[in-house]
Design brief:
270 residues, mainly alpha, Growth Hormone, Chain: A, 9 helices, 85% helix
């Protein structure tokens, strides 16, 4: 929030280039702080290795884990579609911003203002909306809200490829994603046995996330050569349809997976 305010205020008097030196200085201060923490803070004790466990054994048993808990399959698909749509939306609304603000100082000031408002909205959403909705709707129902808002933002962009739609898409990718999607996404891992969560996270948020980024990059590269921005937006609308459907099935699998964990004796309610 403070960074966005500083960028919005300082971009006019000093310009855009000096702000980059300020960013470099802040990164140097962060490096110094990390080195100080590394010298002053004691590391957490390592857990003793489990006998008989190996990386190859974990990979071999992974298909059986997916067969037992199908939610992993849909979780991976949702992460792939999420990062692909996030990247496409970012490219689209930044393209509109660049066209609406040809002067780089005005563009920097505008981006700083949007960032500041997004961070403030994120705090308000987390406190005033996300927690009450989680208590009332639960994780399963909440998991489809962000995909629906993403679909609506892409439809608005496809219908009116202008600044208001770009701001709405930016807000969906900013405060709504951080305040609504991320908390629910992390809670979804509760439907997977705890001893497998690390393995599933590494697979989904390491491998599948990277595949989604690569897919979006190839799509944007081809789109710049052969498609207009509006046509690329309609591709995003189609992907949003798959995203909503995947999240809907995921919400159903969340409950099913919890029941499977109870039957397997993984969760103890006493």
């Amino acid at each position: 929030m403070l960074g966005g305010l500083a960028a919005s205020v300082l971009s006019g008097p000093i310009g855009t280039e000096p702000l980059l030196w300020i960013v470099a200085l802040l990164n140097m201060l962060a490096i110094v702080q990390l080195r100080v923490l590394g010298r002053t803070e004691a590391p957490l004790p390592n857990e003793p290795p489990t006998a008989g466990r190996s990386h190859w054994g974990g990979l071999k048993s992974f298909p059986e884990l997916v067969a037992r808990y199908p939610i992993i399959r849909y979780l991976a698909c949702s992460i792939f579609l999420f990062i692909a749509l996030y990247t496409i939306a970012e490219f689209l609304y930044l393209s509109i911003y660049a066209e609406a603000f040809p002067d780089e100082r005005k563009l920097t000031s505008f981006l700083g203002l949007i960032r500041m408002l997004s961070d403030a909205a994120q705090v308000l959403l987390l406190v005033g909306l996300t927690r009450p909705l989680l208590d009332r709707l639960g994780v399963a129902r909440m998991s489809v809200i962000y995909p629906i808002t993403t679909l609506l933002s892409f439809v608005w962009l496809a219908g009116q490829f202008r600044l208001p739609a770009a701001i709405a898409s930016n807000l969906n990718s900013g405060p709504l994603e951080n305040a609504l999607h991320q908390p629910v996404h992390h809670l979804t891992y509760n439907a997977i046995p705890h001893r497998f969560v690390g393995r599933v996270r590494a697979f989904c948020e390491g491998g599948i996330y990277a595949l989604g980024l690569a897919f979006a990059g190839v799509l944007l590269w081809l789109g710049q050569r052969h498609l207009t921005l509006v046509q690329l937006t309609w591709i995003g609308v189609a992907l949003c349809g798959f995203y909503v459907a995947t999240k809907y099935v995921l919400s159903k699998q969340y409950v099913t997976s919890l029941i499977s964990m109870l039957r397997d004796g993984v969760v103890h309610l006493v």
